[in-house]
């Protein structure tokens, strides 16, 4: 547990106050007030992971539905002891349950989208009790304004109906009095009003006895009396009785609902706890977004690395970021130099960032930052800005230091500000060195600031200790607040005095009093500062060049990737187009082979079987698309014949098919017949093939068969299956005969045969269109077919 004194010294409570402003509910604000740094490593990692999930949700979704959440724990506790909850309290219970249901659905939607991983939010969703039954019961009885509805019970509805009727009667009677002939002069106003829950009329003082009845009130001037006339006293009494009865029924309903709350009070406590935790997590994320924070990596080794870290309580625009790293080889840092230089701010930055991270908060630094989980953190930080301190101030600091020395161990982070200040400089420096030796020697991580020059040598003489200073700009005579690790601080008193106009003779004399050794040390420090500044400038320029190179590399890589993707897409498109053409050609060729085989059966085997086998073999030996020379733009191809003539047999390389030259279109392009296809092909895509002599009887066989095909097919009286078979054969024969139009006679009948034939024609690749016959062609009994 981190000591309360350290939290107060480092102003941790101010950070909590800033985070609380991002909470949606009072539950969340209360939970932030109790947010303290954890000392268990696993717990700290869990808190940071939850916060990181909240940040991811905010980045992806923009916001989270957290409205309508109330702290209903006090109401639930009163219900547990038998108390009656007010209608507004019950409405808040219902609203909180409804808000939890909406939040559950929201988390489930993110889970189903599977865009970001949110295991901790899913676990919290599962931990939220489902209390929709209680919500429905409350909603049936109480509206959003906290009023009990007529529908809450039949008894209440009946009472209110009677009450409204009685009130209407009284109003009617009073309005009759108001409309009387002399009413305008006797009444101060012509409105019916209510006093002491009774209907009354405003009567002028001088006419108080004209109406009789009971005076319930008077105006501030005393000129008007509010009188309940005798004629409505009984009616008002009845209204009062009904209102008491109404109130009793309302209390009965509220008690019944309060009993339901009592039954689920433990679940309500759990629900409020989970909702508060989620509100705090999201508030942490919003705080991190607003303050440009990062989630640090955590370790258990005492290692601290803050990249461009800022003090959490300073404005982003003015805070100077610093890189701070120690905890491995270097376990102690001594920041030396004059006061007002920003040493204390650096000390608080390290301490406060550590506390924030251990509380699961993001820290104001850049990615790559890393912090340790410390079991204890101690800080002795004062606001003294002068070594002229009283004994009481020195004593108060020493009391705190004694307490630290009694409690710290190797798992502690110890921060000392102006260690040894407030007493004699020589003794103070000696005490500071001794205290640092004690803390560092027992393994704690320690940072200390001092303006004593004696401690500058401390970082050089002690292993594991480093000097540091805060940069001072001689030109502007002001600190830059940039931390320089490895360079001890110097007073700059002579330079400042010179810039302010102190004579050189006085400055030179002062230098002689300081001694040669000190002067040489100051010169060495100045040289170190200049060397460091130059190195940082070079590193910054190198970083800028590296970033520019990286941007250029990414740009070129993107363009290359886009080019490769476009090239691949074009290649794929070309292959698909070529494959489609080849597949269609093969399909047509298969059809032709089937037709030729059928012809052979019916033409005394004029077409030989081995010819059909050879045709099929040539189709199967077509060049695979993947090895196609045109698509792959291969450099080596077979020699093309330069003296092609009409009628030559060629191989079309891009399709892997054989064809015949029909016509020369230009010096480099031919019309080629490939099966039933005619295409224009470049001569660079053609390969000459030595012709094979075709048997004469094959052509004769085709001609004999074609001569037998008629222009119409009569299917009347045929069975459905037989008719389809005959239609299929007839269409093939008509195509071989090169017919453009044929007619199929199927008759009218039930229409089944017609529908079957037309369904077949729809699927046939070589059927261009079909229609019913016209009046002179057979009408609905005939289908006229147009062939491709």
TrEMBL record:
<dbReference type="GO" id="GO:0006298">
    <property type="term" value="P:mismatch repair"/>
</dbReference>
<keyword id="KW-0694">RNA-binding</keyword>
<keyword id="KW-0699">rRNA-binding</keyword>
<dbReference type="InterPro" id="IPR036187">
    <property type="entry name" value="DNA_mismatch_repair_MutS_sf"/>
</dbReference>
<dbReference type="Pfam" id="PF00488">
    <property type="entry name" value="MutS_V"/>
</dbReference>
<keyword id="KW-0378">Hydrolase</keyword>
<dbReference type="GO" id="GO:0045910">
    <property type="term" value="P:negative regulation of DNA recombination"/>
</dbReference>
<keyword id="KW-0255">Endonuclease</keyword>
<dbReference type="GO" id="GO:0030983">
    <property type="term" value="F:mismatched DNA binding"/>
</dbReference>
<dbReference type="InterPro" id="IPR045076">
    <property type="entry name" value="MutS"/>
</dbReference>
<feature type="binding site">
    <location>
        <begin position="337"/>
        <end position="344"/>
    </location>
    <ligand>
        <name>ATP</name>
    </ligand>
</feature>
<dbReference type="GO" id="GO:0072344">
    <property type="term" value="P:rescue of stalled ribosome"/>
</dbReference>
<comment type="function">
    <text>Endonuclease that is involved in the suppression of homologous recombination and thus may have a key role in the control of bacterial genetic diversity.</text>
</comment>
<dbReference type="InterPro" id="IPR046893">
    <property type="entry name" value="MSSS"/>
</dbReference>
<feature type="coiled-coil region">
    <location>
        <begin position="518"/>
        <end position="616"/>
    </location>
</feature>
<feature type="domain" description="Smr">
    <location>
        <begin position="713"/>
        <end position="788"/>
    </location>
</feature>
<comment type="subunit">
    <text>Homodimer. Binds to stalled ribosomes, contacting rRNA.</text>
</comment>
<keyword id="KW-0540">Nuclease</keyword>
<dbReference type="GO" id="GO:0004519">
    <property type="term" value="F:endonuclease activity"/>
</dbReference>
<dbReference type="InterPro" id="IPR002625">
    <property type="entry name" value="Smr_dom"/>
</dbReference>
<dbReference type="InterPro" id="IPR036063">
    <property type="entry name" value="Smr_dom_sf"/>
</dbReference>
<comment type="function">
    <text>Acts as a ribosome collision sensor, splitting the ribosome into its 2 subunits. Detects stalled/collided 70S ribosomes which it binds and splits by an ATP-hydrolysis driven conformational change. Acts upstream of the ribosome quality control system (RQC), a ribosome-associated complex that mediates the extraction of incompletely synthesized nascent chains from stalled ribosomes and their subsequent degradation. Probably generates substrates for RQC.</text>
</comment>
<dbReference type="InterPro" id="IPR007696">
    <property type="entry name" value="DNA_mismatch_repair_MutS_core"/>
</dbReference>
<dbReference type="InterPro" id="IPR027417">
    <property type="entry name" value="P-loop_NTPase"/>
</dbReference>
<dbReference type="InterPro" id="IPR005747">
    <property type="entry name" value="MutS2"/>
</dbReference>
<dbReference type="GO" id="GO:0043023">
    <property type="term" value="F:ribosomal large subunit binding"/>
</dbReference>
<keyword id="KW-0175">Coiled coil</keyword>
<dbReference type="GO" id="GO:0005524">
    <property type="term" value="F:ATP binding"/>
</dbReference>
<dbReference type="GO" id="GO:0140664">
    <property type="term" value="F:ATP-dependent DNA damage sensor activity"/>
</dbReference>
<protein>
    <recommendedName>
        <fullName>Endonuclease MutS2</fullName>
        <ecNumber>3.1.-.-</ecNumber>
        <ecNumber>3.6.4.-</ecNumber>
    </recommendedName>
</protein>
<dbReference type="GO" id="GO:0016887">
    <property type="term" value="F:ATP hydrolysis activity"/>
</dbReference>
<keyword id="KW-0067">ATP-binding</keyword>
<keyword id="KW-0547">Nucleotide-binding</keyword>
<keyword id="KW-0238">DNA-binding</keyword>
<dbReference type="Pfam" id="PF20297">
    <property type="entry name" value="MSSS"/>
</dbReference>
<comment type="similarity">
    <text>Belongs to the DNA mismatch repair MutS family. MutS2 subfamily.</text>
</comment>
<dbReference type="Pfam" id="PF01713">
    <property type="entry name" value="Smr"/>
</dbReference>
<dbReference type="GO" id="GO:0019843">
    <property type="term" value="F:rRNA binding"/>
</dbReference>
<dbReference type="InterPro" id="IPR000432">
    <property type="entry name" value="DNA_mismatch_repair_MutS_C"/>
</dbReference>
């Amino acid at each position: 547990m981190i000591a309360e004194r350290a939290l107060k010294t480092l102003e941790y409570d101010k950070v909590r106050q800033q985070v609380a402003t991002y909470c949606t509910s009072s539950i969340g604000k209360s939970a932030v007030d109790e947010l303290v740094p954890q000392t268990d490593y696993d717990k700290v990692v869990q808190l940071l992971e939850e916060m990181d999930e909240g940040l991811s949700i905010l980045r992806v979704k923009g916001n989270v539905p957290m409205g309508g959440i109330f702290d209903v724990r006090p109401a639930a506790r009163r219900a547990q002891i038998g108390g009656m909850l007010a209608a507004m309290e019950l409405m808040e219970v219902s609203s909180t349950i409804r808000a939890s249901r909406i939040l559950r659905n929201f988390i489930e939607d993110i889970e189903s989208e599977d865009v970001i991983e949110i295991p901790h939010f899913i676990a919290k969703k599962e931990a939220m009790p489902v209390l929709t039954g209680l919500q429905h019961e409350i909603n049936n009885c109480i509206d959003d304004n906290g009023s009990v509805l007529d529908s809450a019970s039949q008894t209440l509805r009946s009472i209110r109906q009677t009450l409204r009727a009685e009130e209407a009667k009284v109003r009617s009677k009073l309005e009759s009095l108001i409309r009387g002939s002399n009413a305008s002069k006797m009444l101060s106003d012509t409105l019916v009003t209510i006093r002491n829950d009774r209907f009354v009329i405003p009567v002028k003082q001088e006419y108080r006895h004209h109406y009789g009845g009971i005076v319930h009130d008077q105006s501030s001037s005393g000129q008007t009396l509010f009188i309940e006339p005798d004629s409505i006293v009984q009616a008002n009494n009845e209204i009062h009785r009904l209102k008491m009865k109404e109130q009793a029924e309302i209390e009965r309903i509220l008690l019944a609902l309060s009993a339901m709350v009592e039954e689920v009070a433990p679940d309500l406590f759990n629900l409020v706890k989970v909702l508060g935790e989620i509100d705090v997590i999201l508030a942490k994320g919003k705080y991190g977004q607003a303050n440009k924070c990062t989630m640090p990596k955590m370790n258990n080794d005492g290692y601290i690395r803050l990249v461009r870290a800022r003090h959490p309580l300073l404005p982003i625009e003015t805070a100077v970021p610093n890189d701070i790293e120690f905890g491995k080889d270097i376990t102690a840092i001594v920041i030396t130099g004059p006061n007002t230089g920003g040493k204390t701010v650096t000390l608080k930055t390290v301490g406060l960032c550590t506390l924030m991270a251990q509380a699961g908060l993001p820290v104001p630094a850049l990615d790559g930052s890393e912090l340790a989980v410390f079991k204890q953190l101690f800080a002795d930080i004062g606001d003294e800005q002068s070594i002229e301190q009283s004994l009481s101030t020195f004593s108060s600091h020493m009391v705190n230091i004694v307490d630290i020395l009694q409690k710290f161990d190797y798992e502690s982070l110890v921060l000392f500000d102006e260690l040894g200040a407030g007493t004699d400089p020589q003794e103070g420096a000696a005490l500071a060195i001794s205290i640092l030796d004690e803390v560092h020697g027992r393994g704690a991580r320690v940072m200390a600031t001092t303006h004593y020059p004696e401690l500058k040598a401390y970082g050089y003489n002690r292993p594991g200790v480093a000097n540091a200073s805060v940069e001072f700009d001689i030109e502007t005579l002001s600190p830059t607040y940039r931390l320089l690790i490895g360079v001890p601080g110097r007073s700059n008193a002579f330079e400042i005095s010179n810039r302010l106009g102190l004579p050189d003779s006085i400055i030179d004399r002062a230098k002689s009093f300081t001694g040669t050794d000190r002067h040489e040390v100051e010169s060495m420090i100045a040289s170190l500062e200049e060397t460091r500044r130059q190195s940082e400038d070079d590193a910054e320029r190198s970083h800028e060049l590296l970033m520019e190179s990286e941007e250029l590399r990414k740009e070129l890589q993107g363009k290359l990737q886009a080019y490769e993707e476009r090239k691949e897409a074009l290649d794929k498109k070309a292959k698909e187009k070529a494959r489609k053409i080849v597949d269609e050609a093969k399909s047509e060729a298969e059809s032709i082979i089937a037709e030729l085989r059928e012809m052979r059966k019916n033409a005394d085997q004029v077409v030989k079987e081995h010819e059909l086998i050879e045709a099929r073999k040539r189709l199967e030996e077509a060049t695979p698309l993947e090895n196609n020379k045109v698509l792959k733009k291969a450099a080596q191809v077979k020699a093309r014949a330069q003296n092609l003539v009409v009628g030559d047999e060629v191989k079309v390389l891009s399709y892997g098919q054989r064809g015949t030259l029909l016509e020369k279109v230009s010096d480099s392009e031919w019309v080629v017949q490939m099966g039933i296809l005619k295409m224009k092909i470049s001569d660079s895509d053609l390969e000459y093939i030595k012709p094979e002599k075709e048997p004469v009887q094959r052509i004769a066989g085709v001609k004999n068969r074609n001569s037998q095909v008629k222009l119409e097919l009569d299917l009347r009286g045929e069975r459905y299956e037989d008719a389809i078979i005959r239609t299929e054969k007839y269409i093939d024969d008509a195509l071989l005969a090169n017919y453009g139009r044929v007619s199929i006679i199927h008759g009218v009948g039930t229409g089944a045969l017609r529908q079957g034939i037309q369904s077949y024609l729809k699927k046939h690749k070589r059927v261009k269109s079909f229609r019913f016959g016209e009046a002179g062609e057979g009408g609905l009994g005939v289908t006229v077919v147009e062939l491709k």
